[in-house]
Amino acid sequence: MNQDARLRILLEQCKKEAPADYGRLQIRQLPKTQHSIAYVECGDPKGLPLLCLHGLSISGFYFEQHHDYFVALGVRAIAPCLLGGISIADAHKNIDDIASDIIELLDQLGIDTFDVMGFSWGTLPELALLARVPQRIGRAGLLGAMTPVTFIGPQHIAQLKSDIRITLGMVKSMPLVHRGVMWLFCRLPVSTFIDQFKDDNLPANEVSALAPGSDFSKSFSRCVKECLRTGSQFLTHGWRMFLDKPAYALRDLANGVDVRLYVAERDNVHLLYFSELIAAASTGKHVDEVSRTVDVARANKVKQTVAEFDLVYSQEKCSIWMLPGAGRIACMLYFKAALTHLMAQPSEPAELRTAL
């Protein structure tokens, strides 16, 4: 049975359990990569093409909740299911394969140029796209950016949240054990799954957002349930892809794309250093120089603020925008704010370029 048939059977099985969750989902065969892919399309069908790339533990289904917002923003949102949800777990697939699938999907949809917004794990394939097809990308927003482990030194790995370090070690040395643990973990109530996002770094508004009964918690729970409906192997494969050596070098990111990196000040999973590393690669600077500039801007009481974000780095077409005091779930909680900023704000405020 080919992958297209398997995806369609999976979709029908999931529809029986939650028919309302799949009204906007479509499946496409990709002859070049010999894969098939499920994706959600919402927003204005005649709007500006926007590629939306989801994080780990949820799928492209996550973006369906923002349909009316996409319409108001005038964008046609394309949100592929990369891991979890209506997708087939594949231990051989890597980030470059996923990027190839995305490119072929956009080709089939007749989308030549596009903007892209990814968050958390979704920024890994976004980086691959920036390296491979920069000429097709107008604006690239990376909210809670991650970079492949091969680009990160051990001193920064040590700064990651402890359970993430344990996960990475287990996936690297005992992937089958990790799969078994995840299978058992995913049999627990979804509230237990969501509790893993809580830690001492979260500010009060993020703690409230994760509380049972809140609008965000109910929406997040629905997305997690949709993802877990098809199994738990994606959790192991997602972290394994974070550990994989990518098919591109950091220098390949140096291009003329409008890149905006949105970081949460207290995030212990999507570290500020990851965004500084991407900014350095995009502008041809050394990461230490970027870090020094960011430190100066953070200490500057007259730094520019736009909506929730403080501009802490601006060079050429690359900028870093910080959410003061925010923690690890900011990459979901502030998705709409970051996208509004990406689509509406100039990339290089002249008055701050001089100041920085």
Explain what this protein looks like in three dimensions.
With 356 residues, the chain is an alpha/beta fold. The chain has one domain (3-355): Rossmann fold, CATH 3.40.50.1820. The chain has helices at residues 3-17, 67-73, 95-108, 123-132, 154-157, 162-173, 175-185, 190-195, 204-209, 215-228, 233-243, 272-283, 287-299, 330-333, 335-344, 350-355, and strands at residues 25-30, 35-43, 48-53, 75-80, 114-119, 137-143, 258-264, 305-306, 309-315, 318-323. The protein has a ten-stranded mixed β-sheet with strand order 1-2-4-3-5-6-7-10-9-8, sandwiched between helices. α6 packs across α7 and α12 packs across α13 (287-299). It is globular. Residues 347-356 have low confidence and may be disordered.
How widely separated are the two ends? 57 Å
* Count of beta strands: 10
Q: How many structural domains in the coordinates?
A: 1
Q: Spell the H/E element sequence.
A: HEEEHEHEHEHHHHHHHEHHEEEHHH
Structure at a glance:
With 356 residues, the chain is an alpha/beta fold. It has one domain (3-355): Rossmann fold.
Summary keywords:
alpha/beta, 10 strands, 10-stranded mixed β-sheet, 16 helices, single chain, 356 residues, Rossmann fold, disordered C terminus
Provide the fold topology.
Elements: H1 3-17, E1 25-30, E2 35-43, E3 48-53, H2 67-73, E4 75-80, H3 95-108, E5 114-119, H4 123-132, E6 137-143, H5 154-157, H6 162-173, H7 175-185, H8 190-195, H9 204-209, H10 215-228, H11 233-243, E7 258-264, H12 272-283, H13 287-299, E8 305-306, E9 309-315, E10 318-323, H14 330-333, H15 335-344, H16 350-355
Parallel strand pairs: 3-4, 3-5, 5-6, 6-7, 7-10
Antiparallel strand pairs: 1-2, 2-4, 8-9, 9-10
Helix pairs in contact: 3-4, 6-7, 6-11, 7-11, 12-13
